[in-house]
Write a structure and sequence with these properties.
The protein is an alpha+beta fold and 436 residues long. It is built from ten helices and six strands, in the order αβααβαβααβααββαα. The longest helix has 67 residues, at 124-190.
Length: 436
């Protein structure tokens, strides 16, 4: 009899794909509230959880450092070559120390000192800087995509916590209601109005209700612990709870509009498109590197009692190495980036279509429950319970109605959670949380 209840409760401990968003009309979340001793010290809403995660999640913070690292690479790319200082002393009489005289040093020894500089041609420095900036911009989109994924994971886990809270509340209410039935059955048994066998059956069912409550408490603890890891241990107290209810929020937008929106907002698609720009800047840099650089040096020399200046210029002859291999590679890299961008666009559309129809199907299931099945199951249970307590219904009829009611309630909660998850998947697929 308890398989339906046990399965729904146990599913809360599974990965967050079993979850959804909020059922029933959304109720505004108030500020975090203090709780009774030994209870949650604060409550956080979904938006607060996502905000805290974006601020404190360590994996995201680590990813954000890639932007700073790439900005530092921009500084490196924009550096000019250092001048080269050179000097030498020649024809010193180390093996004839007696010749170490001022006259010998002035007339026979030679001293040179010079400064050289590499003049980069083809605007290499400007192309290096632009290529580095394009990589930095791409890393920003990567971080945005990680933020999108983190927000989705937080929302999933938040819904898991909401479902755990709802299931626990229902299990406790169910236990309290059934305890009253057990008390009435005990009175009827003592009065001789209920057989020993039926009374024991009723009493043994109480164990399953108590077990359901214990399992629901465990599921809530596990869901809260997983959520705390996502938002950051230091951002919330150890004893906290989620604020809100399982709620139903319809989406008023067509599939074509969602597709168009996703092509404008998906961070991973923007990253892929930026990859094409970065690949093109790498090709321009490779072509600039094919230009041969000029090295110029000016030397001061003192020899034979005469001081003079010398000028040297050298430039490689591009006979064999014209950087043709790197230029060809970057051209193929552009093609690769373009193909990846096209694949990312197709994946984006596919994600939106999958999420849209999953949301539509979940919506239909929720509407079935809201169309009367929930109320019918409750009324059937109440009627059977009243009839049983007054001796007008059999034990089997009452237990069957109780089982149907519990399965219906758990199914409705699971349907709401699944719908909320589908809605979060739609937000992730489109790339924004602001859906009409």
């Amino acid at each position: 009899m308890r398989k339906g209840m046990a399965w729904a409760i146990a599913s809360l401990a599974l990965p967050s794909w079993v979850l959804g968003q909020n059922p029933a009309p959304q109720q505004p979340a108030g500020p975090p509230a203090a709780a009774a001793p030994n209870g949650p010290t604060a409550r956080i809403a979904l938006d607060d959880a996502i905000r805290l995660a974006l601020q404190h999640n360590h994996a995201l913070q680590a990813m954000r450092t890639t932007i700073l690292q790439n900005q530092d690479l921009e500084t490196t790319a924009n550096l000019r070559p250092n001048p080269v200082l050179s000097w030498d002393a020649q024809f010193l009489p180390f093996f004839q120390p007696e010749n170490f005289t001022a006259s010998y040093i002035d007339t026979n020894a030679q001293f040179d000192m010079g400064v050289g500089y590499l003049f980069e041609r083809g605007k290499k420095r400007q192309h290096r800087l632009q290529a580095a900036k394009d990589v930095t911009e791409q890393s920003r989109w990567q971080v945005s995509d990680n933020e999108r994924t983190l927000a989705f994971n937080v929302a999933q886990q938040f819904i898991a916590a909401l479902l755990a809270e709802s299931t626990l509340d229902f299990a406790q209410q169910d236990l309290e209601s059934f305890q009253k039935t057990v008390d009435i059955s005990e009175s009827r048994h003592k009065a001789g109005d209920l057989s020993e066998g039926d009374y024991l059956k009723i009493k043994l069912q109480l164990l399953q209700f108590q077990t359901d409550v214990a399992q629901a408490k465990l599921a809530r603890v596990q869901a809260i612990a997983a959520l705390r890891q996502l938002v950051g241990f230091e951002s919330v107290p150890e004893q906290f709870a989620v604020a809100g209810d399982l709620q139903y929020q319809p989406v008023h937008q067509g599939l074509d509009e969602l597709k168009a929106m996703s092509l404008r907002t998906r961070p991973d698609l923007m990253e892929a498109r930026q990859g094409v720009i970065a690949a093109e800047s790498q090709e321009k840099l490779a072509e600039a590197n094919a230009k041969q650089d000029l090295t110029a040096t000016v030397d001061y020399s003192h020899v034979n009692a005469t001081s003079g200046l010398s000028f040297f210029f050298n430039i490689p002859l591009a006979v064999f190495n014209r950087n043709q291999g790197e230029i060809a590679r970057t051209k193929h890299a552009i093609t690769q980036a373009q193909e990846l961008a096209s694949e990312a666009a197709e994946q984006t559309i596919s994600d939106v279509v999958d999420a849209y129809y999953a949301l539509e199907m979940s919506d239909q299931i929720v509407q079935l429950y809201r169309g009367g099945y929930v109320d019918n199951a409750r009324e059937s249970r109440d009627i059977s319970e009243y009839a049983y307590r007054h001796g007008a219904a059999s034990l089997l009829d009452f237990l069957d109605a109780q089982r149907t009611y519990r399965a219906n309630q758990l199914g409705y909660r699971q349907a709401l959670a699944t719908y909320m998850t589908a809605l979060e998947q739609m937000r992730q697929a489109v790339g924004t949380r602001n859906l009409p």
